[in-house]
Amino acid sequence: MKCIYLLPLLAASSHAFVDCTRDVLTALYTCADALQPHSDHYVNSVPRIGSPGVHNAICYGDYPTCNDLQRLVGTPAANCDVSLAKGYYVNIGRDLLSPCASPMPPRTKDVELCTGTGLTLSEYSSKLYTDVHRGNDNEHFLYNNTDRTLRAKSNGQCVEAIMTPWPGAVHTVPCNGNSEMQQWTIEKERVSALRGGLCLKAEPASRGAVVGLTSCNFGGQSPAYFVECAAAKPTYVTVTSQGKRLSEYYSNLFANAPANNFNELFVWDQPNKMFKVASNNQCLDAFKDANGKVQVHTWACDVNNGNQKWNFNPTTKTLEHATHTGQCLDADPTYADRHAQMWACTPNNANQQWSIDTFTA
């Protein structure tokens, strides 16, 4: 089944239709015929001209019969409309054409893909997993800028999406550049399937986790999605006292046995004296309640909020609040619910001694 790119199609009633000249239409249809020979359904082939893969292929010279159309980029002649179906049209200059990069990037690019916690995407026996970085071919993939395939260097096969049963899965199979299930986009901190609106995702705190698919949620942040390893990513830390890790749950704080989940992972912003937890993207926050007692929870991060400032003393191991001085983060292991609290700083108090360690899955 061929992919139909309907995103650039607009209702004719919302825009004054501008006719294209004969020369422009000839260039357009000649290019479309090269992309999809023996087809009279231009509603399918014309919008493909504006897709990222086809655009790159034109720029690489794979479709020389599209050169006349590509030369129209930025010209007044390209600012015209062509009807593809009743009530729908595309504007050639706006919806289909864009300049070629100069210089063009390599057709194929060697990429390594990582979760936000630093685990690497790795192929083994045609399955995809997370692993620590080992520097082998299993964690190298060749991304093709034209057919959008992602080929594992370890077995020479391409990553393919399996859409059913929901939410789908991934594996590697022999490469087929025409298969929509093997076409991927690497952008916006996601590796997304061209079809289906799904992205690669794995449990980011567990090495050996099977990689699968999930909704992309481009507006949100999660260390579970994959990005290019070279991209700058935060370093996560754990905050531990007496073998128990500080853990967020519904904005409350507890000291629990290590579980290697989002709730235990913090970004330590040392210059701003802040700790942001990965589970809800809120910051460690201490405040005075109506009775004047200092309480601790997580709250929306605000660099100007004095309740979110903390001083860690590497000698005494205390996390003392920078605003509510004399108050330290405290976790008493005798509490049945294991809640963390604020308590008057006391020298040599094991309940107030914390270690801050870089997280390694």
From TrEMBL:
Residues 1-16 form the signal peptide. InterPro entries: Ricin_B-like_lectins, Ricin_B_lectin. SUPFAM superfamilies: Ricin B-like lectins. It holds the Pfam family Ricin_B_lectin. Residues 109-227, 234-357 form the Ricin B lectin domain. Keywords: Signal. This is Ricin B lectin domain-containing protein. It comes from Saprolegnia parasitica (strain CBS 223.65).
